Amino acid sequence: MTPPDSAQFPDPAVLARALSQRVPTADGELDILSEVELAVKAGETLAITGASGSGKSTLLGLLAGLDHPSAGEIVLLGQRLDELDEDARARLRAGRIGFVFQSFQLLPALTALENILLPLELAGRPDARERAAHWLARVGLAARAAHTPRQLSGGEQQRIAIARAFATDPEIVFADEPTGNLDAETGARIIELLFELNASAHTTLILVTHDDALAGRCQRRLHLIAGRVA
């Protein structure tokens, strides 16, 4: 595959060149990703698809700077990740990157409002509480502000997670199987909410999914087969 052209993508939100990930196993080294090339424009929506074990979640984690690749280069929001230490990566993500996970990743001891409030406080937003309340209402759960995750349904928890992801006005939202733990009807509502909020915020959205309906809502699809771009 031809490497992404910098002229075609003059200011990409995410750029990956020759990205590979190799891990040791009892039988030797295993290639999870091999020579992946990818460029995502600001405001674009991209679905990463593929069979289980094809490397989708590994690729998402690398692009978001949550892990280090074995080889290759990643440029995230204009910053080469290999030139940043862990603290610098965390600062880059704070307020500029949002995450939505299959397992929701809400803090069980915090209320719905507090889960949305936390990243706003970490980003130093002076209007953190007001924004958290605003986003709780945006996802239709203002009445659940004082409820903890165990008092919420799966769909409600994912709504809180989506509100948390968008509350800091991020430039990119990464979503890993956002409908994976939900039934079909609830998943469909979550898809509508995710794309409604993304369109209004003009955010770059990169998501991993095995859901064809969700992938079909994205402008582009990148399909992995055994760690390689198909």
What keyword list fits this structure?
7 helices; globular; 230 residues; four-stranded antiparallel beta sheet; alpha/beta; six-stranded mixed beta sheet
Please provide a written account of the structure.
With 230 residues, the chain is an alpha/beta fold. The chain is 32% helix and 28% strand. The protein contains seven helices and ten strands. A six-stranded mixed β-sheet has the order 6-7-8-3-9-10. Helix 3 crosses helix 4 (128-138) and helix 3 runs parallel beside helix 5. 41% of the residues are buried. The model is unreliable at 5-9 (pLDDT under 50).
Class derived from helix and strand content: alpha/beta
What's the helical proportion of residues? 25-40%
What is the chains' assembly state? Answer: single chain
How would you characterize the largest beta sheet? Answer: 6 strands, mixed
**Overall mean confidence score, pLDDT:** 90
Please tally the β strands and state the result: 10
Q: Which of globular, elongated, flat, extended, rod-shaped describes the shape?
A: globular
